[in-house]
Amino acid sequence: MLDKQYDAKKYEDGIYKMWEESGAFKADVNSEKEAFTISMPPPNATGTLHLGHAVMLALEDIMIRHRRMKGYEALYLPGTDHAAIATENVVIRKIKEEKKIKDPRTLGREAVIQEIKDFVANSQNTIRSQVRKMGTSCDWSRERYTMDEMLNRCVNEVFVKMYKDGLIYRGHRIVNWDPNLKTNVSDDEMDYVEKKDSFYWFKYGPFTIGTVRPETKFGDKYVVVHPDDERYQQYEHGETFECEWINGPITATIIKDKAADPEFGTGAMTITPWHSAVDFEIAERHNLDKEQIIDLEGNLLSVADEFAGMPITEAREKIVEKLDKKGLLVKVEENYVHKVAINSRGKGMIEPQIREQWFIDVNKKVVQWKGVTRSLKEVMQEVVRSEEIKILPERFDKIYFNWIDNLRDWCISRQIWWGHQIPVWYKTEGDSTDMHVGVQAPEGEGWERDPDTLDTWFSSGSWTWSTLIDPNLADDYSLSLEDMLENSPDFQKFHPTQVLETGYDILFFWVARMILMTTYTVGTIPFDTVYLHGLIRTREGKKMSKSDPKTCIDPLEVIEKYGADALRMSMVIGSSPGNDSRLYDEKIKGYRNFTNKLWNASRFVLGIFEENGIAEAPKLDLKNLSDADQWILDKLNKVVVETDNSLMEYKIGEAGQLLYDFVWNEFCDWYLELSKGEKQNLGVLYHCLKTILILLHPITPFVTEQIWSQLPGAEGMLIQADFPTPLEGQFDGSAVELTIGIVSAIRSMRAENQIEAAQKIPVTIFAYDHFETVDRNKPDIIRLARLSALSLYGTDEEKKLSGAAADVVNGMEIYIPLEGLVDTEKEKERLQKEIANLTKYIAGLTGKLSNKKFVQNAPEAIVEAEKNKLEEAEEKLGKMEEQLKNL
RNA sequence: GGGCGCUUAGCUCAGUUGGUUAGAGCGUCUGGUUUACACCCAGAAGGUCAUAGGUUCGACUCCUAUAGCGCCCACCA
């Protein structure tokens, strides 16, 4: 027999093992069934599972299990990401700490990469076991890693293809350089933090210019003003003047450009094109010189003369001091608040630098899409605009388009070691340098590979399809990319994928890049639907940060305490796509209570089967059904349909809520209670429990599977059961609706009246003795159930027997006081309110029916139904007015 | 500066073609050891659906404005 309380810990690991070993997660590429594929967004192979992963895994697993049970060939492909900068950063820091090596890069590329590989292998194992803990039913036999040989091959193939199409180019551009990590980062990887600094005003010839960064000003020889700025009307564009500057006299040139903001300070500024993106653009526009002031380590170069070699942080004060001595310092504003750019990985300050980098041209029109030659940007827009790809929630369409509109060329090279090395080789002989761009290294001596690696999103952008190519083809270079796709059954069967489920925070990083890479390379969309989940926040609505264990909930601890099912439910119910949700202990506990409720209801039902010696599934006889049976089957049919619809539309939370309510408030609270003391219909009980287990299985896979294993006659594992369809036939639940109405009414009566009242009602009421203990201060009216139920229920004699309640008329909801049990004044008040409401309702209905648009457009049956409703309501109103008079 | 949201019970949140009396969980209060479950059962209180206009027979829902909160992007010499 089952324990009195469900102890998730006791069962979950064993169940997972059983599923995995049975092969239930494995998708069959030769299956005739329609494919349904989800590529798991690969967690970074750097650490441990956090709540973001947990919500992702819960949602995806629900979708997959549902489709698998519905008879799709469901593939849920797991994997991990090498997370270039993030991982290298972590390992470099680790080496520093553990081996006390100041600059681990002195160990050399090979050694550092080996360290990273070891670290990654270790993290991957952690991640794998944690993904299992969530109950994730992914196909481990197809697990991939962004650094797999095949994925590396794909990366190279895409790079070469793009290069040949002229989409990849190399150029000198200003990049976001991180002197700490010694790499550049993409625009999207930057964060801005507020900082207080001093703001200095210096004399610059006849101008006064402001800056927070005097240390960059050595090479400034252009002063920019707005062309319409009246203060500087007397100067011509291109005019030069001599002036004294940090290290002596210079010749400065006046530039008129709209980039200068006349509202800001004096309206005049000097520019440092090498170290500022805006200044760089101004310089490009006017063909100005660009000079490097700061090296890649963050130290001043020889242009700084006496300050050369000094770290910028140190130099600032000394430069100001010098300028002050020269009488060029006008004033200093303390505590000037501005924002500075930092690298979101590693939090190092960003120092813009001009560097030679590889870029993807997003505007060049060379991509064939639907018979039109378009740019990458245009294809990205087109697939979403045409709804080939649907984004949930829809409003993210706008955000997506807005981002694309502002998209600039994508800088894909990174100066780090960990990642896919750029497939470009150089050979220098004398003055000339040969360049080879290819999937493989060129033949011959003297070639050196580009040391840079690719942005991590370049490889994960190909995730949906590169993971489906047969890995055995990786070193067969006689095959082109097209050949490989064609010769990979998995790709043929499972691509495009159906859903890409991920957090909205990586819509641009990743989702957009996948669309770009896949449409370009494969010629299809990567997925039909993008489901974006929100952030999980604390109870107070704050972001959970890893560094603060007080605010941060660890999914593994939750699983340990309440079970994976409870965690899954708590992350899915009460949240909708795109919206952040809050998670806290009581919430999870509430859903743990639900798993226990289900457990105990099952225990009760299984106990009944045991008493009746049931070893096989009892037959469901739809001919002899009690009122309660009819009612629950009617409800169950509706729940089956609605759950399925909600899940098909990816309204996961809605499905969860529906099932929660049905199981607890209908199946347990009414059906099981009513069945006590009655002769139970074993067939119906069995059918209900079985259906409930199947319906709930996608959401709470463990507890349902465990109960399933105890269900007599249940074949195989629940994970492989068929999703239910509604039973044929109509079930009339009105009798129980009435019962519920009456019971509720009686329950809310004064205790001493309850038994008397109950006895007057000819309905099966399950336990009279409950009524003795109800609160004594309750309103003393009997609220009878809906008339629609009454009219259908019971014999005439029974209706008569209901004594004071006999005033029940067809088709109306009615409230009747039981003689002597009721407070006349209160009843009057209530009736008046009812009449007011009803009047309003009638007005509404009348309006609706007089609305031409409604009458013309709505299906006839609905219009007819509305007319009937109106008639009923008018009749009822009459009765109530009559009743009020009689009081 | 450009864009996107949110505001519903004490708290956390659901709520789509506009339609009867706006729902749930938690919390609070009342009563209950009822053999499936105290991780439970029965009940109660609690709402001008942010505010003001508009459209409509009818608005939580559609439109406009305002306020507060938040997010994304750009910029900050």
Task: Outline the structure in words.
By secondary structure, this protein is an alpha/beta fold. The chain has 28 helices and 27 strands. The chain is globular and about 105 Å long. Residues 761-823 have low confidence and may be disordered. The protein binds one RNA strand of 77 nucleotides through strand 8, strand 12, helix 9, strand 27 and helix 17.
Calculate the mean pLDDT score and round it. 82
Strand order of the largest sheet: 6-5-14-18
Task: Indicate the low-confidence ranges by residue numbers.
Answer: 761-823
Structural class of the secondary structure composition? Answer: alpha/beta
| Strand residue content | 15-25%
Count of separate DSSP helical elements: 28
Find the count of extended strands (DSSP E, 2+ residues).
Answer: 27
Coarse morphology: globular
Radius of gyration: 36 Å
- Through-space gap between termini: 57 Å
- The residue fraction in helices comes out at 40-55%
Largest sheet: 4 strands, antiparallel
In short:
This protein has 887 residues and is of the alpha/beta class. The chain contains 28 helices and 27 strands. A four-stranded antiparallel sheet has the order 6-5-14-18. Strands 10-11-9-12 form a four-stranded mixed sheet, with no helix packed on it. Strands 8-7-13 form a three-stranded antiparallel sheet, with helices on one face.
